[in-house]
Predict the 3D structure of the following.
Amino acid sequence: MSILSEWAHDLEALFFPPRCPVCQRELNSGSRMVCTRCLAEAPLTHFWLAPDNPLTRSFWGLLPVEQASALLYFSAHSGWRRLIHDFKYHHQWRLALEMGRWYGAELAESDLYHSIDRVIPIPLHWRKRLLRGYNQSEYLAQGIAEKLGVECDLRSVRRHRNNPSQAQRSREERWQNVEGIFSVRHPERLAGKHLLLVDDVLTTRATLISCGEAILKAVPDCRLSVAVLAASKHNIQHP
């Protein structure tokens, strides 16, 4: 960073001090992402420490996953919802990367994820990615892969159909909306690998399951696990 850039950054911080995306309080100088208070009070699930957890069980009979975890419990009335919306809809992609690094550090401390070979984010269709400018799940996946010390694969799986948004759709409509929308371009790259599928928020599991089914159809000998940033208790308990 040049001296001029440093000066501009310091000036911006003087007049517009960074704020915690969760509670909106001013961040102290040692905080890179979220204030220490919000980090201490984060609604962590700790699913990554338990092989038999509610999220893993919620995939039983739907998709053969070895492990499934969420970093946070999602609540519509929580400041963490604001953070997720910031990186999903308001171009705050650095938040997604930092959240991925936090999540990845937790997964790296767990014995359950040491066999992961590749991290694969749920892809967006190219039109939607072009419109938004980025795929927030890619940044989450890159942060996780960095901490696990494995490759983040952005090329092998694609969303070949631009399905409408899942928002405001019924549970049945969401399942129908994602049927057959994914395909695998380089199955040889995934053969025999343990893959970690990454998404931001878990709702009905429909998108993750559709993606996982496409991968297993193309690469029957791979293994799947799932990591989502947030999941509501209701959606975990009611597949």
